[in-house]
C-alpha cells in the first residue's frame, strides 16, 4: 500500500477508536448500524461488484444469523440439544454453519441461472425465507423473539452501545482484512476472472461454478455475522428487518459506495444510513405529512449515480488523497514452478478423428480430421463461416462434438470440460480478446497459472499462501518478459493497444505450461513489425517443443510460418499439406475466390 494510503488508514482507525469517547449516544448508535450494514454490503461487493452476480436476498441471511442466535439463547431446548443453548458465541458458530449449508444449497441452485433470471432467483428465495421467519411458531411468528441476552466478552457485558461499538467495528475490520487478502490471491484472481466470462475463466482452468458458490457463501456468512450482532444489540428480532425491501437497500449501499471496491461498502452504508436518518426528519417537515419520502430520494440518487459515477463514490473520494509518486514496482522474483515433461519432437499431441458438430440442422463441422505434433505449427484456414472457430471450441471443450473423437496425448478429451482439458496441458487464446481491462498485465497473465497453484480460500483469506503466490506471480512475470512486454507489466491491460493485448493473451496461455497452444487469430490488429515479432515468438515456442494450432486470416503471415496447413470450407476439410502445395491447390483457390494470391 502506498504511504499516503497508509496514513489515511491510520487516521481513519484513530477516528474510529475515538468516536465513542467524543460522540453522543445517538451518533454512536448510528455508527453501530453503519458497521452492521457495512458487513452485509461488503459481501455484496465480493458477490456483485467483483464476481458480477446480483443478489437481492442478502437480508434473508442476516435474518438467518439473527434468528439462530435468538432461538438458541432463549428457547427451552430438548435434553439432546441442551449443550447448544444459552451461549451467544456457540450460537454464532451454529449460525455460521447453518448459513454456510443453506447458502451453499441455494447458491448451487440459483447460480446456474444467468441474465435476469439470477436476480429473480435471489428475490424468490429471499421472499421465501422472509415468510418462513414470520410463519414458524417456534420463531415467534410475526411477533418475533424477545429476551435475547447481552453479549459478554471475557465476562464483561456489552450493555452500553459504546461498548458494543468496538465489537461491531472490530468484526467489520476483520472481514475487510479477510476480503482484501482473498482478492489478492490466486483464488481472488479466479473470482475476478468471472467478470471476463465463463469461457475464458474455464479455459484457464478455473472451476467457475465453484468460485461462484464460494463468494455466495462468503457473502452469506458476512450477512449472518451482521444478523448475530444485530440480534444481541437489539435483544429482540422479528421478520421486518429481513424483507426484500431491506435486501434492495443493501444492494443500494454496495452500488453507491462502489460495488467493485472493498471500502466502498463502508462508504455506501454510511451515506445511505446517515442520509436516511436525515431525510426521515427533514422531508415530513417540508411536505407537512409523514411517509416514506426518502425512498423517492434514494431512487433518484441511484439513477444519478448510475449515470454520473457508475463506479460509485469510493473512486471519487480517493482522488482527494495524496497520490503516490510514480515508480515501477519490483518485478516478482521467486523459485520457478514445476514444469510438465516436454513431449518428444514429432510426438502426436492432438488427433481429431471424424468430428461432426451440429447445431440443429446446421452442420458446422463435417467429418473433420487433423493432427498436431510437438514442435509443429499447424495452420487452420478457410473463409469466414468455414467452421474454424467451432472446431477450436470442440477441441478446447467449449462445445463438445456431436460425434467423432478428439484425443490429446493419447487420451480422449471430447466431452471433458475446458478446465479439465487445460489441466492436461492445452491452453488457448481467443478471437475476440478476453482480458480483464482494469487488472494489470501481470495479474491477467497470472490467471493463466491458476492450475499450477493449490492454495484454497481459507489460506488465501489468512494470507497463508504467500510463498506460492510469489511463485505464481514470478512465473507470470517470466512469461511477460518471454513475449517482449516487460515494459508494460504493471500497466492496466485495457490501456494497451489491441496488438499488445493479443500478445498478453499468449503470455497468459503460456503461464499454464502447455504442451499444445491454440491461437485464434493472434495476428489480427497487429502492425507489420508486430507480426514479425509474433512470428519470431511462435518459432521460438516451436523450438521449445510446444505444438501450435493456429487459426488466422492473414495468408502472408500463415504461409511464412506454418509447417502444414489445413483448409476448411463449409465445415469440411478441402485440403491439407505444405504451404506451397496448398497455395496452388485449385479447391483452395476456388474457396477463396483467388484471395490466397
Determine the mean pLDDT.
89
What's the shape? Answer: elongated
Number of helices: 23
Low-confidence runs: none
User: By helix and strand content, what is the structural category?
Assistant: alpha/beta
In whole angstroms, the N-to-C terminal distance is: 56 Å
The number of distinct β-strands equals 14
Instruction: Give the C-alpha Rg.
Output: 28 Å
- The largest sheet has its strands arranged as 10-11-12-7-13-14
Fraction in beta strands: 5-15%
Q: Helicity range of the residues?
A: 40-55%
Main β sheet profile: 6 strands, mixed
Describe the 3D structure:
The protein has helices at 3-22, 25-50, 58-74, 88-110, 117-135, 161-183, 186-192, 198-203, 208-234, 244-258, 264-287, 293-308, 314-318, 388-396, 418-423, 441-447, 457-461, 466-482, 498-510, 528-543, 555-559, 579-583, 586-591, and strands at 145-146, 152-153, 156-157, 236-237, 348-359, 362-373, 377-381, 403-408, 411-412, 426-428, 516-520, 547-551, 564-569, 572-577. It is of the alpha/beta class. The strands form 4 sheets. It has a 6-stranded mixed β-sheet, with helices on both faces.
List the helices and strands and how they pair.
Elements: H1 3-22, H2 25-50, H3 58-74, H4 88-110, H5 117-135, E1 145-146, E2 152-153, E3 156-157, H6 161-183, H7 186-192, H8 198-203, H9 208-234, E4 236-237, H10 244-258, H11 264-287, H12 293-308, H13 314-318, E5 348-359, E6 362-373, E7 377-381, H14 388-396, E8 403-408, E9 411-412, H15 418-423, E10 426-428, H16 441-447, H17 457-461, H18 466-482, H19 498-510, E11 516-520, H20 528-543, E12 547-551, H21 555-559, E13 564-569, E14 572-577, H22 579-583, H23 586-591
Parallel strand pairs: 7-12, 7-13, 10-11, 11-12
Antiparallel strand pairs: 1-4, 2-3, 5-6, 5-8, 8-9, 13-14
Helix pairs in contact: 1-6, 2-6, 2-9, 2-10, 2-11, 3-4, 3-5, 3-9, 4-9, 6-9, 10-11, 16-18, 16-19, 18-19
Amino acid at each position: 500500500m502506498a504511504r499516503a494510503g497508509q496514513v489515511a488508514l491510520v487516521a481513519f482507525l484513530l477516528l474510529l477508536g475515538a468516536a465513542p469517547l467524543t460522540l453522543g449516544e445517538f451518533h454512536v448508535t448510528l455508527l453501530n448500524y453503519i458497521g452492521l450494514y457495512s458487513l452485509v454490503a461488503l459481501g455484496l461487493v465480493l458477490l456483485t461488484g467483483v464476481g458480477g452476480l446480483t443478489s437481492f436476498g442478502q437480508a434473508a441471511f442476516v435474518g438467518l444469523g439473527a434468528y439462530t442466535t435468538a432461538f438458541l439463547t432463549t428457547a427451552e431446548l430438548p435434553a439432546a440439544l441442551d449443550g447448544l443453548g444459552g451461549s451467544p458465541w456457540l450460537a454464532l458458530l451454529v449460525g455460521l454453519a447453518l448459513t454456510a449449508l443453506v447458502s451453499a444449497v441455494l447458491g448451487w441452485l440459483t447460480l446456474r441461472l444467468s441474465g435476469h433470471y439470477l436476480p429473480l432467483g435471489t428475490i424468490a428465495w429471499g421472499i421465501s425465507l422472509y415468510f418462513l421467519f414470520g410463519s414458524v411458531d417456534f420463531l415467534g411468528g410475526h411477533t418475533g423473539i424477545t429476551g435475547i441476552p447481552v453479549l459478554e466478552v471475557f465476562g464483561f457485558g456489552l450493555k452500553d452501545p459504546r461498548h458494543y461499538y468496538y465489537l461491531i467495528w472490530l468484526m467489520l475490520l476483520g472481514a475487510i482484512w479477510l476480503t482484501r487478502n482473498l482478492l489478492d490471491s490466486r483464488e481472488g484472481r479466479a473470482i475476478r476472472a468471472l467478470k471476463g466470462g465463463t469461457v475464458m475463466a474455464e479455459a484457464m482452468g478455473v472451476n467457475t461454478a465453484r468460485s461462484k458458490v464460494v463468494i455466495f457463501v462468503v457473502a452469506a456468512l458476512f450477512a449472518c455475522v451482521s444478523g448475530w450482532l444485530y440480534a444481541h444489540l437489539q435483544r429482540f428480532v422479528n421478520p421486518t428487518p429481513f424483507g426484500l425491501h431491506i435486501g434492495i437497500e443493501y444492494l443500494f449501499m454496495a452500488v453507491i459506495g462502489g460495488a467493485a471496491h472493498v471500502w466502498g461498502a463502508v462508504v455506501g452504508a454510511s451515506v445511505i444510513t446517515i442520509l436516511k436518518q436525515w431525510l426521515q426528519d427533514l422531508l415530513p417537515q417540508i411536505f407537512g405529512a409523514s411517509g416514506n419520502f426518502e425512498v423517492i430520494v434514494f431512487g433518484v440518487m441511484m439513477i444519478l449515480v448510475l449515470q454520473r459515477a457508475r463506479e460509485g463514490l469510493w473512486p471519487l473520494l480517493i482522488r482527494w488523497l495524496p497520490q503516490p509518486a510514480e515508480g515501477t514496482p519490483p518485478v516478482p522474483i521467486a523459485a520457478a514452478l514445476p514444469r510438465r515433461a516436454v513431449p518428444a519432437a514429432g510426438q502426436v499431441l492432438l488427433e481429431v478423428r471424424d468430428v461432426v458438430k451440429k447445431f440443429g440442422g446446421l452442420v458446422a463441422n463435417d467429418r473433420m480430421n487433423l493432427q498436431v505434433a510437438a514442435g509443429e505449427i499447424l495452420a487452420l484456414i478457410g473463409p469466414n463461416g468455414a467452421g474454424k472457430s467451432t472446431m477450436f471450441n470442440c477441441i478446447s471443450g467449449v462445445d463438445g462434438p456431436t460425434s467423432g473423437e478428439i484425443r490429446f496425448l493419447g487420451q480422449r478429451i471430447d466431452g471433458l470440460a475446458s478446465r479439465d482439458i487445460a489441466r492436461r496441458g492445452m491452453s488457448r487464446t481467443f478471437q475476440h480478446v478476453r482480458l480483464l481491462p482494469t487488472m494489470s498485465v501481470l495479474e491477467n497473465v497470472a490467471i493463466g497459472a491458476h492450475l499450477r497453484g493449490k492454495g484454497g480460500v481459507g489460506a488465501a483469506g489468512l494470507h497463508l499462501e504467500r510463498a506460492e503466490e510469489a511463485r505464481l506471480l514470478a512465473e507470470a512475470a517470466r512469461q511477460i518478459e518471454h513475449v517482449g512486454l516487460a515494459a508494460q507489466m504493471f500497466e492496466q491491460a485495457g490501456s494497451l493497444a489491441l496488438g499488445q493485448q493479443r500478445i498478453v493473451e499468449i503470455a497468459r496461455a503460456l503461464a499454464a505450461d502447455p504442451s499444445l497452444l491454440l491461437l485464434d487469430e493472434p495476428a489480427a490488429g497487429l502492425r507489420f513489425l508486430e507480426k514479425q515479432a509474433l512470428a519470431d515468438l511462435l518459432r521460438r515456442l516451436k523450438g521449445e517443443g510446444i505444438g501450435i494450432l493456429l487459426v488466422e486470416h492473414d495468408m502472408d503471415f500463415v504461409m511464412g510460418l506454418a509447417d502444414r496447413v489445413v483448409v476448411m470450407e463449409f465445415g469440411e476439410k478441402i485440403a491439407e499439406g505444405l504451404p506451397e502445395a496448398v497455395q496452388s491447390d485449385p479447391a483452395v483457390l476456388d474457396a477463396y475466390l483467388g484471395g490466397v494470391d
